């Protein structure tokens, strides 16, 4: 009887100890959360002091993108050429590879640049050319996201970014020219091959640090930024140690009242526009 009573007391004490531990951990978690929120608010207040307005909800506080590496894939280029042209033959000129078929030609250059010219056009049956462009790329290159559509001399142009796990690769900007709903030309940059994690030790800064450094970069560059509308995480190419290699580095694309800006998530510095 005494042993059973003692056992019950021990069980109760253990339950009380576990409860105290849970309360302690919960209190620490709440404290961490509060400190995190206060730090974020301080970063936004600092931007406001610099004359830059930004809504808290517009910030991707959790950075999930990490550096990737991509190698040129001749087999993938051949498959892409055949998907676009059908039966075709290859011709090598230095580091440029050209495929020619009855419906046109595709030229592949280093670092993912390519150009397609059609002799037989792919006709859009949709009024929305951007929908046709996205479907065409998804079938042949993979997923993409719309950058812009515009009227140009002789037709319309749809510009898209290829995406990696849903994140835009801003260097992989693909321009598709239409005339009378016929797809006439494709040009731009594509992912060299299937990316894999980069193990070169490139660290990614936290969102608070990036916001503070962005304010410093804007001030140093003398840019008239007073408002940030949106922040879109994505990637930019950096040339690797090999001529057939590129490294995909995480960046933020900030839509501001002074135009779009790219901020490196690894250095906190403004990047040059990926426009070529």
What do you see in this structure?
This protein has 276 residues and is of the alpha+beta class. It has four helices and 15 strands. The strands form two sheets. The protein has an eight-stranded antiparallel β-sheet with strand order 3-4-5-6-10-9-8-7, with helices on one face. Strands 1, 2, 11, 12, 13, 14 and 15 form a seven-stranded mixed β-sheet that branches. A hairpin with a 2-residue loop joins β7 and β8 (155-164). It is elongated, with a radius of gyration of 26 Å. The model has no long low-confidence stretch (mean pLDDT 85).
Topology:
Elements: H1 2-49, E1 53-54, E2 68-71, H2 74-85, E3 88-93, E4 96-101, E5 104-108, E6 113-123, H3 129-140, E7 144-152, E8 155-164, E9 167-179, E10 182-189, E11 196-197, H4 207-221, E12 227-239, E13 245-256, E14 259-264, E15 270-271
Helix pairs in contact: 1-4
Biggest sheet: strand arrangement: 3-4-5-6-10-9-8-7
Total count of strands: 15
Shape call: elongated
- Structural category is alpha+beta
What's the rounded overall pLDDT mean?
85
Largest sheet: 8 strands, antiparallel
Distance between the termini: 85 Å
| Contiguous helical run count | 4
**Secondary-structure element string:** HEEHEEEEHEEEEEHEEEE
Percent in helix = 25-40%
Q: Low-confidence parts lasting 5 or more residues at pLDDT below 50?
A: none
Rounded radius of gyration (Å): 26 Å
Strand content: 35-45%
């Amino acid at each position: 009887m005494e042993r059973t009573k003692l056992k019950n007391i021990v069980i109760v004490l253990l339950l009380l100890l576990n409860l105290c531990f849970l309360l302690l951990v919960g209190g620490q978690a709440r404290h961490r959360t509060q400190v995190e929120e206060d730090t974020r608010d301080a970063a936004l207040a600092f931007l406001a002091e610099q004359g830059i307005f930004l809504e808290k909800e517009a910030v991707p506080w959790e950075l999930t993108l990490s550096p990737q590496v991509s190698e040129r894939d001749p087999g993938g280029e051949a498959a892409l050429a055949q998907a676009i042209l059908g039966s075709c033959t290859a011709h090598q000129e230095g580091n440029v590879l050209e495929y020619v078929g009855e419906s046109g030609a595709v030229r592949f250059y280093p670092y993912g640049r390519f150009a397609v010219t059609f002799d037989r056009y792919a006709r859009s049956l949709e009024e929305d050319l951007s929908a046709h462009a996205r479907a065409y790329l998804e079938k042949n290159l993979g997923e993409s996201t719309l950058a812009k559509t515009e009227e140009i001399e002789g037709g319309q142009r749809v510009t898209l970014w290829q995406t990696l796990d849903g994140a835009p690769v801003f260097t992989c900007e693909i321009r598709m020219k239409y005339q009378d709903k016929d797809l006439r030309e494709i040009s731009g940059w594509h992912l060299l091959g299937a990316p894999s994690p980069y193990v070169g030790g490139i660290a990614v800064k936290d969102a608070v640090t990036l916001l503070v450094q962005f304010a410093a970069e804007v001030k140093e560059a003398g840019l008239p930024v007073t408002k940030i509308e949106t922040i879109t995480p994505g990637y930019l190419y950096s040339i690797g140690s090999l001529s057939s290699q590129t490294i995909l580095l995480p960046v933020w694309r900030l839509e501001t009242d002074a135009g779009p800006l790219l901020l490196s998530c690894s250095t906190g510095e403004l990047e040059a526009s990926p426009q070529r």
